[in-house]
Amino acid sequence: MTSLLRWARTAMKGGPSAVLRFPTSGFEVIKRSQIFEEERFEEFEKGHYYPVNIGDVLVSKYQVLGKLGFGTTSTVWLARDLKRRQYVTLKVYTRDGTGQGEIQIYKALSQGDTSHPGYAHLRTALDTFTISHQGSGHHCLAQKPMWGSFRDLMYRTPARRLSEDLLKTGLKQVFLALDYLHTECKLVHTDIKSDNILQEFEEMSILDRFTDTELEHPSPRKSVTNMPIYASRRFELPERFGRAVLSDFGSAVRGDEKRDYDAQPTIYRSPEVMLKTEWSYPVDIWNVGAMIWDLFEGKHMFLGMDPDGKGYSTRMHLAEVIGILGPPPLDFLKRGERARDFFTKDGMKCLMA
């Protein structure tokens, strides 16, 4: 199989890439009784996923090479752009319009001044298209492949945390990305976490080896009511990493429109969000500041776990913030719709249940 892949890479130079033929046997079949990957989600039971098969060529352009991941609204695949002869990742959304909002955000990302130094640190769209299945449309997003996230790297290193040098460089690049997002696109990300900070490939040969492995050792899989489910596979750990890139804009909102509803990953929520004051761009900066502790120390700065045993609570989260930074200013509390739930009128802590 490896020789076939080498031939495909060198054949037809200057023209489209050759379509690879993937094995149709010789793979592990997952037991029907074993709940597997996206099969665990209600959307799968409803038949909302698109039946992607490794080896498929979508819209006569992208050949699927292997599965990278899955979620409640999409599956993600490594693919080959046959016309441009380059690797891409394909995010194939579930049906009924899922992904439309995120795709619109990706289109907005390219409307700012792309010479801004932060633009290179945002994950943008290479292409968007729609494929049909059983009368429904599935939006698809093609992007430049990334090795993995800061979270992936943390869990694949013995220390379970990032090195100081990598963190310094990565955070500088994340702040450049946020400056572009805030100033050029007028968008607030609202969902910054280690999963959403990716790293570019420096060694493109990793993608070749990923494809070689799929050809020689096909991924485990199963079929449920004619819907294929493949095992996701990881890229090998590189010797060096490229730039940090901020990704996943599905929760992004306009920053020039004031809002006060709940947002952000729970443990990274800013005081504005917790107290329901109007919030905008600064909540992203708070979000990054709280996340840094995870990356460097390997543990959360704030937990918000209530001692009554009921799990997370805003009152405990606020108590932890105040324990480090002191009480919030009185004028800030006056703007918070929920401030009266936790503070007296003079700004003293109340922290009622």
UniProtKB/TrEMBL annotation:
* Entry annotated with the keyword Metal-binding: no
The reactions it catalyses are:
L-threonyl-[protein] + ATP = O-phospho-L-threonyl-[protein] + ADP + H(+); L-seryl-[protein] + ATP = O-phospho-L-seryl-[protein] + ADP + H(+)
Q: Which InterPro entries match?
A: Kinase-like_dom_sf, Prot_kinase_dom, SRPK
Q: What class of enzyme is it?
A: transferase
Protein name, as recorded: non-specific serine/threonine protein kinase
- Per UniProt, residues of the Protein kinase domain are 62-353
Cite the GO molecular-function annotations of the record: ATP binding; protein serine/threonine kinase activity
Q: Name one GO cellular component term.
A: nucleus
**Source taxon at top rank:** Eukaryota
